[in-house]
Write a structure and sequence with these properties.
Layout: H1 2-47, E1 54-58, E2 67-69, E3 74-76, E4 80-84, E5 87-94, H2 103-120, E6 126-131, E7 135-140, H3 143-162, H4 172-176
Parallel strand pairs: 5-6
Antiparallel strand pairs: 1-4, 2-3, 4-5, 6-7
Length: about 190
Amino acid sequence: MCSFNFYLRGGFIELIIIVGVLLFFIAIVFIMVSKKGKKEVNIIKDRYNIQQGRIAYSDLNKPARPFFSKRYRISGKPDYIIKRNDKYIPVELKTGYHPAPLKNHVFQLAAYCHLLEENYGGFVPYGVLVYNNEKQFKIPFDPNIRFELENTIKKMRYSLEKNRFSRNHNDLSRCLSCSMRKYCNIKLS
């Protein structure tokens, strides 16, 4: 009887060792698969000029919730947000080839920077505009752009309240797709 208990304890210890070795090899396989997946993600990020960092939000593959500013009473959804070094960076993808960022795109990105500061707390140092997944512009969210953003929002509110609008272009396609079209009395068509 005594030798039977010794055999059971010895077999149990062998079983624990075998299970431990098996779990160790399974862990190594998971680590290798994880590293391969991370490498593939970095290759895709490089191919499509996605900023380095963790993607904290995306409105690209499925609709995401919009951000809202109580201060300015504006809302918006950046294409995606990167979190890098505890900072949130909005990224906006645009079509077309431009040697410099368009002013309306800069203001849209500045509005996203403000929305992130108000909703996440903390400082947003800059945003990124990407044209046709190639040309990128890092737009600082500095005091000048903050001041211009606030003044632009005030002018827009005034125009809405007074029903006074002025067109700053003669582009029919731009006029047809304008978000202010229903308020406008100087439409091109």
